[in-house]
Every structure is written in structure tokens, then in C-alpha cells.
Amino acid sequence: MERIDVEKTASRGVAVAPVYKYLEPDFSPDGGLIAADQAGMECEKFIRAKEDVQKELELLAEENPIFAAHLEIAGDFTLQEGVETKITEELMNAQLALHNTIEEFAAIFEMMDDEYMRERAADVRDIGKRLMAVLKGIQRPDLGSIKEEVIVAARDLYPSDTVKLRPEVVKGIITEEGGVTSHVSIIAKSLNIPTLVGVSGILRKLTDGSLVCMDAGDGVIVVDPDRETLAGYQQKKEAYEGERTRLKALRQQPAVTKDGKRIALCANVGNAEDIRRALEMNIDGVGLFRSELLYMENDHFPTEEEQFAVYKEAAELIPQELTIRTLDIGGDKGLPYFSFDEEENPFLGWRAIRVSLDMKDMFKTQLRAILRASAFGHVRIMFPMIISPEELREAKALAEECKRELAAEGIAFDGAIPMGMMMETPASVLLAEEFAEEADFFSIGTNDLTQYLLAVDRGNKRIAEKYDYFHPAVVKAVGHIIAAGHKKGIKVGMCGEMAGDPDAAKLLLDLGLDEFSMSAGSVDYVREQILK
Predict the structure, then answer these.
(1) Measured between alpha carbons, how far is 83 from 99 in angstroms, rounded to an integer?
(2) Secondary structure class of 271 (helix, strand, coil)
(3) pLDDT in tens, 174-192
(4) Within this chain, do residues 297 and 376 fall inside the same structural domain, yes or no?
(5) 159 and 121 in a common domain
(6) What is the secondary structure of 342-406 as a DSSP string?
(7) Neighbours of 220 (CB within 10 A)
(8) What is the CATH number of the domain that holds 131?
(9) Residues 57 and 188 in one domain
(10) Are residues 353 and 431 located together in one domain of the fold?
(11) What is the rounded CA–CA span in Å between residue 178 and residue 156?
(12) Same-domain pairing of 269 and 398
């Protein structure tokens, strides 16, 4: 018997079943460089593969909205241009050109600090594997063919793998790679399949058919359990299934504390697909719509019409509040079609509102799109990375300028649209009362706030244990922001990781937080804490 402790829980739950080791075919490129007269033929190979994959994805997108985003990536002109340039100018064969282009695309996402954005690299690689499978003429294993109860163990799983899983037979998932905000994790949560990710070296410790117990809530895997341990996990499994039934029943209750305060439970999302999944949790709105995803998955700065279509769909999907954060780009988040100057400290550099205020035409395009969408729902505008009242006033002034333009054009919008800001810098904490005079609402971004207050890079493994949003300095800052907001009569929410931590709920309630915004999978657990 061997016990393995795991850090990353992607989907809670307890499972007991034999192992099914999912081993992928070799997707590495065959061959390498070609003669110049072969370039045309290699380009044609890629185009045919792309057309085949697009047809597959069109069918899948009809059944699962995740694949609508994959379809966009597969059809992305920048992807095709990158592959064809490598074939025609660097004389790579189609497979090598595809591999290198996909890795370049994925690297853009992997360098980001925001885990949600970082995990989009897996979606890019999923498309790459689909295309490579066609180019190499190989079949991918079909997880939909599993007929016995198993726990699937794999190096990593991608959406096109996970969507085939049937929860009646797949009782758990363990992967060596991946993160808790990947689409695989999102699908696993929606299917209520216990999932642990980032378990380094687990495949070496497992054999096909070996019995495994896993508790994804506590982050524990037990390989080849003895009789007593097995019995204990069987009991834990039954208890967990009862808990899930109970938590699901709580969704019908509004989040009201024992002393009668109504708390808003909202979701952090990146697109309409995320909203649809979150609605199943009976949320009170969207506390953070990450608009940068629209920019990063494009091959150009999205136009007003392109943005309006996305924001309008989101506003119509969610009947309550929809808080759209304006472009939070720079720092760790790059764009494939725009070059940022290299910076020694990018997190302290040209990013977020600084980019928007310097690129006013781009900013106004986004503001106009958001304002137009506000005619179709309860939309709020949220500005990121503000450090001075002057910045906030300038951003609001540009929004007012857009309002005047739209009014002159006879285009409808919410003239009283709320405009608030992220509280995520030490400056915003110290100036919270001044900001409360200017902002309609606050949303505390504990991810950056913790990083800046403690001078801890949470991506640095050597000091990661020092990144702690329960640190007294962070708690004191959160309390100060809430008090300052309430003193001026504005609501204060939180959209950082702390908001989705059930262990933090009571503390945040005591501090007076009005709104918790989190990943959809955390809503049930936080609701339970609020109702206690």
C-alpha cells in the first residue's frame, strides 16, 4: 500500500476503482526539413488536415459549447499563417511546422500568471493534437469505449478526451499535468467526477487494473489499499455522495446569513460557455468577465462589433449583474499580434489600465461595445490595476465620451451604467476612501493584492509557501477596503481565489464582504458556509 498526497484538486469527491492507464499515441512530428519544391505540397497537406478537423469540431460544437472555442482556434488565420510561413520560408515539413507553431501559441498562454488564462494552453495543444493525428494518419484512443468502473490515469487529458467520459463508469481522474482551471477540470466538475491534477510521476506508480482509492477533497491517493483502508474509503465515498445531494439541494436557497444579510454569489468567467455552466449553480450574477480572453484568442484587436456580439450574448444569458473587466493585458499576458517591450518587472510595468489609457482608440472601442451591450442586461464596467484617483477619473471620462457619441448616433445604452474598479494594489488600499468617492463599487482581487502586499511571486516555487491570503497584512487590507467602501455607501465584492475558499468564507463575512465571485465549482461549498 502507498499513500500519495496531492496539492491540486480539480473536482472534489471520493472514488474507489481499478486503474485505467490512458496512454496517448506519439504526436511528435515525423521528418523535418524539406526541399523548396515540396513546400506547396506540404501546405496542401496542412490545409486538408485543417478542413477535416474543422468538420469534426463543427459536429462536436453542436453538442458541447467548449468546442465552439476550439473551432475558432482551428480556423484562426494566425495559426494557418504561422504554419505556412514555417513551411515556405523555413522549409519545415507540415508536421514540424504545425508542432512549432502550436508550441509558440501555447507558450504565450503558459507565461501568464493568471491560472485560468495559463490553462488555455491546453486547448491550443488539443487542437494541435487533432491536426497532427490527421497529418500522421493515427487514431486517438477512445475513452468513450470504457465499459467497467475505473479511475482514469493519464499524463494529461484534453477536452476532446474528457467530453467522451461517462460518469457511470469513469469514477475518478488523475493526471500528471494540467491545472484546476483547465477545460478538462471544468468538464470533470460538471460531470461530478473526482479529479486530481498535477500529480507528478503518478503513471510510474500505477499499473493497469491496480486498485486505487482517491479523496480529491483532501488530495489523497492510496495505491493497493489494505482491507481496512479500503473499507474506510468505501464509507467516505458513500458519505461524499450524500453530501453532494445535500449541497445540490441548497442551490435553491438564496445566500442569506443567520443575521439576515443577503450575500451575492457570483461567478468568474471568460466567455459565454463559462456562464452557461455557472448558471447551473444558481448564481446571482457574474462578478468578473475576463474580457482579455477575447483579445488573446484573436489574430487582431477585436472590433467594436465583434466585442459587442460577445458582451451582448453574455448580458442576455445572465439576468442579474454582469461585471465586465476592461482589458487586463500586459505583464504576464501577451497578444500574438501586438509586441510588448521587454520589461525587467512586467508585473510592475505597462499593463491593464495603463495600456488602455495609452491606447485610447482601442480602449474606446471596448467601452463602446460594453455600453451597447448594457442595453440588453444589467452590465457593470470594472477597471483593473488602478493606482490613483486621476486614472479612475480619466477612464470614466472616456466612458462618458463614448456615451455622448452613442447618444448622438441614436444607439441605446444604459446611461447610468455602474463603473467600479479592482482593488488589487497597495496604493488602492491606502487610498480606498478617496476611491470610494469616485467608484460605484469595489471588487477585491486577492491574487495580485496578496502578491504585491507580501512581495511574493506566487509563480516562484521556492517561495510559494509565503503566498498566503490569510496573512494578517492581507486580511487587514481586505477589512480596510470593505470598511472604506461601506463608509461611502458602495458595495464591495471579491473576485480573487480567496472568495472561492470555503475556509475563508466566515472571515470574509465577519469583515462585511457583500459579494463573493469565484469559479463555478466552488459556489456550492461557499453557499453552505454562508448559510451556516
Answers:
(1) 9
(2) coil
(3) 988 876 556 566 667 767 7
(4) yes
(5) no
(6) P-SSGGGSSBTHHHHHHSHHHHHHHHHHHHHHGGGSEEEEEE-S--SHHHHHHHHHHHHHHHHHH
(7) 17
(8) 1.10.274.10
(9) no
(10) yes
(11) 6
(12) yes
**β pairing state of 14-22 and 378-383:** unpaired
Domain presence at residue 258: yes
Residue 291, helix vs strand vs coil: coil
Residue 183: active-site member: yes
Q: Is 70 a catalytic residue?
A: no
User: Does residue 169 sit within a domain?
Assistant: yes
pLDDT digits (tens, 9 = 90+) for 87-124: 999 999 999 999 999 998 888 777 776 666 676 777 78
State the pLDDT confidence band at 281, using cuts at 50, 70 and 90: very high
Residue 242 inside a domain? The answer is no
Which residues does 223 contact at the CB level (< 8 Å), separation at least 6? 1, 2, 3, 4, 205, 206, 210, 211, 212
CA atoms of 19 and 207, how far apart (whole Å): 7
- 528: its cell numbers: 453552505
Q: For the chain, give the mean pLDDT.
A: 89
C-alpha R_g of the chain = 24
State the pTM of this model: 0.71
Which one of 213, 266, 402, 495 is the catalytic residue?
495
Residues for the chain: how many in total?
Answer: 532
Annotated catalytic residue within 70, 99, 183, 402? 183
Interatomic CA distance for residues 101 and 144, integer angstroms: 30
Picking from 298, 293, 315, the residue whose alpha carbon sits closest to that of residue 369 is 315
Residues 219 and 266 in one domain: no
- The residue among 53 and 336 whose pLDDT is bigger is 53
Q: Which domain holds residue 493?
A: 252-531
